[in-house]
Design a protein that fits this description.
Blueprint (H helix, E strand, L loop, with lengths): L1 H15 L9 E2 L2 H14 L4 H15 L7 E5 L2 E4 H20 L3 H5 E17 L1 E5 L8 E4 L6 E4 L11 E7 L2 E4 L3 H5 L9 E5 L2 H10 L1 E5 L5 E9 L7 H7 L10 H10 L4 H6 L5 E6 L16 E3 L10 E8 L6 E11 L8 E8 L1 H9 L1 E11 L5
Parallel strand pairs: 4-17, 5-11, 14-16
Antiparallel strand pairs: 1-4, 2-3, 4-18, 5-10, 6-10, 7-8, 8-9, 11-12, 12-13, 14-17, 15-16, 15-18
Helix pairs in contact: 3-4
């Protein structure tokens, strides 16, 4: 027990010094909204049926939230979960109307510019060849969540630590950080019956950890989803940045594809580079997925991940940005639903779920642009 108190003291000090996301907002005029609505007609990333499915899932999540709880609290702009639910329902019921008559977006909703400089990245669902047992080329394990991994929710001790957690293990009477990627790669979890599958490619397994979910193709032709189950709680370190520091990539060359190519060309560096990121993810097998943090299936090109201090889970956004394409960048204006989060998502950062397949991999691996982010609220919610 003394070890826990000691640990809490250290983390209370550290988190008291942690930077917070500071946001402003600007309410758009009806004419500005109509311009956005017109762009939405021709530049949307998804079609109305897919957006409606995402909104139905959003609605299911929001119906289980405390309606009076505050989801977003900015100066002179306080948004409750009931506000978000009302917005989702109204948008879902009027999508076709807005699609045919863009002016109705301004009649039904207030739109607030939250940021003109949000980092927009992408993630996707990779496919990996896998085996249920270690054999032949299948040398690299995918681990389930270990029973000795403990999580302490700091919000229990003070509301200012909402969303902050400590991940640890017990070593006798000592509280210790959970095993790092290097320790796990060197066998810290071997022989404990935690392996759910084995894969051929160590680098692709690392990318599975980054993406948080994927699909495994087994020798008998069966395909299973592999979903995020937990993490070791250690700091995420970008290996792309490390490759730039080592002179193996230029800053403007960094993408998932270029990182993979460099590591394949330098096999003696693979362990050093991958283990520089101590963060480690654990998985579970499933028949369906992937699921976001709202415990609903994600919708490609509609679902987006965020940290809850920037835009709230359950919120509906309108985003203007740029996607990489095979023949040049493509501008878009699209409705997105905040349905997920991720360990590397800090500050003003959105991560777009691109689905699976070669196009999703291409876009997610190269997407790193700045975007304008707007929050939709049904008219009357903040009058």
């Amino acid at each position: 027990m003394r070890a826990i108190y000691y640990l809490l003291g250290i983390f209370f000090f550290l988190f008291s010094c942690a930077p917070k996301v500071e946001l402003g907002w600007q309410k758009l005029s009806p004419s500005e909204i109509e311009k956005l609505a017109t762009k939405l007609q021709s530049e949307s990333l998804s079609f109305t049926p897919a957006i409606k499915v995402a909104l139905e899932r959003q609605e299911a999540f929001l119906k289980n939230k405390d309606p009076e709880a505050v989801a977003l609290n900015l100066e002179q702009l306080k948004v409750t979960y009931q506000d978000l639910l009302n917005t989702v329902v109204t948008l879902k019921e009027n999508l076709e109307l807005i699609e045919d008559n863009p002016e109705y977006l301004a009649k039904l909703f207030d739109i607030y510019l939250l940021s003109s400089n949000t980092l927009l990245t992408g993630y996707y669902e990779p496919w990996l060849e896998a085996s249920y047992e270690k054999k032949g080329e299948y040398l690299y394990p995918i681990y389930r969540l270990p029973a000795d991994l403990k999580v302490l929710d700091l919000e229990q001790f003070h509301p200012r630590f909402k969303g902050e957690k400590i991940y640890y293990r017990m070593g006798g009477d000592k509280v210790l950080p959970y095993y790092s990627r290097e320790e796990i790669d060197k066998g810290a979890l071997a022989g404990k019956g935690l392996e759910i599958a084995w894969v051929k490619d160590k680098i692709k397994l690392f990318f599975l950890h980054i993406q948080g979910s994927g699909r495994l193709i087994f020798p008998d032709g069966k395909v299973k989803h592999v979903l995020y189950a937990g993490k070791n709680g250690l700091q995420y370190v970008s290996i792309g940045r490390l490759l730039v520091e080592k002179g193996l990539l230029k800053k403007d060359e960094v993408s998932m594809q270029s990182i993979y190519r460099v590591l394949k060309d330098n096999p003696l560096l693979v362990d050093e580079i991958l283990q520089a990121n101590p963060s480690y993810v654990f998985f579970k097998l499933a028949e369906e997925g992937p699921f976001g943090c709202i415990n609903q299936p994600l919708t490609p090109w509609v679902s987006v991940a965020s940290n809850n201090s920037f835009v709230p889970w359950g919120g509906v956004l309108l985003v203007e940005g740029v996607l990489p394409g095979l023949v040049g960048d493509k501008f878009f204006t699209s409705l997105l639903a905040v349905q997920d989060t991720g360990g590397a998502i800090k500050g003003e950062h959105l991560d777009l779920f691109c689905g699976s397949g070669w196009e999703a991999e291409f876009v997610a691996g190269r997407l790193q642009h700045r975007a304008r982010v707007y929050l939709l609220l049904r008219k009357g919610e903040n009058d």
